[in-house]
Amino acid sequence: MSRAAEVREERRALQRRRTELRARLETAGGQERQALRLELAGVEEDLVSLGRRLRELEPRHKVSYRATWAGKEGQAWDRLQYQTWAELEGTEALEGPTEREQMLQALREAREAATPTQRAYLAAVEGGARPAAVARGVGRDKSTLSRTLARGRANITREARQRYQLKRAAQAGEDGVPVLDLRDRETLETVLSMLTEKQRLYLTLYYGEWMSLGEIGSLLGVDRSGVLRTIRRGLERLDSLVGGSL
């Protein structure tokens, strides 16, 4: 059996365990419920790690986008990303839509978009706790927690950069609401890169190919209501990027 096959088998076992834990959570209470939630969070993190490992073993071509971070703005970002969340929260805001304010807002939004587990671990470490102590407190291996922290920081940094880029690209529309011009290729690629693969596919079929919800469902073998939910989540995600309209 190849290493990729072993990883897939391990992932299937964890997926079965996740289903079992979710079912038990529906009837559990008290300390048992808390223990189940912690175990479920650990399983979710392990599944993410296995997914990343599988992509390394079976790489696929991905469409990338080019983001430019040059000059003083890029240097300012480099300084910001090494500050803790508490330090950023305590930063005095300047009047007007400054570059620093846009960066801080992008960081806050990216932080909120992180998983609950990542936010909890980051808050504990940034609050002064040692990673080893945090790992013992939640019953996790230190290396697993370190990977979760690294993944959380990388995700926050990547998403904050993307959000900042979109905020700079947004123009004031009617009533002062920010509007993104998706005719700009770089802006469009950045927007699409922030959606899940399924959301990109469904939105492309719905708006680009003019297919109905039923036609998309028939083509992909999914329920019509599931298609609708995915499209709605994608649109909500897009709307949240700049707090305006596309």
TrEMBL record:
Organism for this UniProt entry: Candidatus Intestinimonas pullistercoris
One Gene Ontology biological process: DNA-templated transcription initiation
Domain of life: Bacteria
Keywords: Coiled coil
Positions of the RNA polymerase sigma-70 region domain: 192-238
Gene3D superfamilies documented for this protein: Winged helix-like DNA-binding domain superfamily/Winged helix DNA-binding domain (1.10.10.10)
Coiled coil (UniProt feature): 4-31
A GO term for molecular function: DNA-binding transcription factor activity
Lineage: Bacteria, Bacillati, Bacillota, Clostridia, Eubacteriales
Official protein name in the record: RNA polymerase sigma-70 region 4 domain-containing protein
